[in-house]
Amino acid sequence: MKEGIISKEYVIPANDFAVAGEASSNVKKILIQLGVEPQAIKKTAVSMYEAEMNVVIHAGGGRAFVEIDEEKILIKIKDDGPGIPDIDLAMQEGYSTASDEIREKGFGAGMGLPNIKKYSDIFNITSQIGKGTLLEITVFFKVKEFIKI
Amino acid sequence: MKVEEFAKHFEMNVLTSEETLNKEITGMYICDLLSLVMSKAKKGDAWITVHTHLNIVAVALLAELPCIIIPEGISVEEATVNKASEEGVAILSTNKDSFKVACEAGKLL
Ligand SMILES: Nc1ncnc2c1ncn2[C@@H]1O[C@H](COP(=O)(O)OP(=O)(O)O)[C@@H](O)[C@H]1O
Ligand SMILES: [Mg+2]
């Protein structure tokens, strides 16, 4: 492992709203401790929470792998769920296959994936039907742009 | 304005522990779509929602919202209250509706 890199792995449970959001909350705490600027923390928190909730709601659970170095955070969220048949469609604001029960809880607005795209600096999504989905989210920290040169 | 002062001023019921009442309220956000709250609510906003399940605590934490206001006398699950107390998020309840709460708070915030 390269020096200065923090690696974390989280298990994201299925359909368990009690612990849902815990991985994102934990990562947020780490970023605060590291002194990362609020804007990047907000971007990370929104993106990771949405990705985490998607895995809870749509994919029967999964895992999050997080790497933080001095200039960025990379979050990989992987599940072995049903996959997404049409990613372009899923990326559209308002598109959701969430059940009524889930909607009654305030999820399923169809804004998750669009929000992740909007709030992350690099966003990759790959999905295979019947196999699962992988999201890769990168957020850059601002401070380092000045130091690098 | 501190959550404690806010709760007193508007005669709201404080459901969470005393330790949750120290944060500063600087604004207000009213919405029941969690994605919108996550992205649009501002740090320091008091959040009015009719949801009472556990995940509202995660949303408040991630969005840095000091307190959740549950309107219309809706009762809140004990698990949610306990989690909020643990995490330092205040939950206030009131019999008023969201419009009334917002109108009153708007004069002060
Ligand atoms: N990890 C996933 N596995 C399977 N399907 C997913 C996953 N993430 C998103 N989807 C699909 O993409 C749709 C849009 O996702 P999103 O924008 O987050 O909206 P929402 O979660 O509110 O439905 C979901 O309704 C679901 O059909
Ligand atoms: Mg979603």
**Annotation field: number of helices of chain B:** 5
Number of strands of chain A: 5
Largest interface: A-B, 23 and 21 residues
- Give the integer mean of the pLDDT values of chain B: 97
CATH domain class name of chain B: Alpha Beta
- In which range does the helix fraction of chain A lie? 25-40%
- Along the chain, the helix and strand elements of chain A come as EHHEEHHHEEH
Q: Which CATH top level class of chain A fits?
A: Alpha Beta
Q: What's a concise summary of this model?
A:
The complex is a heterodimer of chains A (149) and B (109). Chain A is α+β, with helices and mostly antiparallel strands.
Q: What report would you give on this structure?
A:
By secondary structure, chain A is an alpha+beta fold. Chain A has helices at 22-34, 38-58, 87-90, 100-104, 112-119, 143-148, and strands spanning 6-12, 62-68, 72-79, 122-128, 132-140. Chain A has a five-stranded antiparallel beta sheet with strand order 1-2-3-5-4, covered by helices on one side. In chain A, strand 4 and strand 5 form a beta hairpin. Chain A is globular and about 40 Å long. Chain B is an alpha/beta fold and 109 residues long. In chain B, strand 4 (67-70), helix 4 (78-87) and strand 5 (90-93) form a beta-alpha-beta unit. At the A-B interface, helix 1, helix 2 and helix 5 of A face helix 2 and helix 3 of B. Magnesium ion binds next to helix 2 of chain A.
List the helices and strands and how they pair.
The complex is a heterodimer of chains A (149) and B (109).
Chain A: E1 6-12, H1 22-34, H2 38-58, E2 62-68, E3 72-79, H3 87-90, H4 100-104, H5 112-119, E4 122-128, E5 132-140, H6 143-148
Antiparallel strand pairs in A: 1-2, 2-3, 3-5, 4-5
Helix pairs in contact in A: 1-2, 2-5
Chain B: H1 3-9, E1 13-14, E2 27-30, H2 34-40, E3 45-48, H3 55-62, E4 67-70, H4 78-87, E5 90-93, H5 98-106
Parallel strand pairs in B: 2-3, 3-4, 4-5
Antiparallel strand pairs in B: 1-5
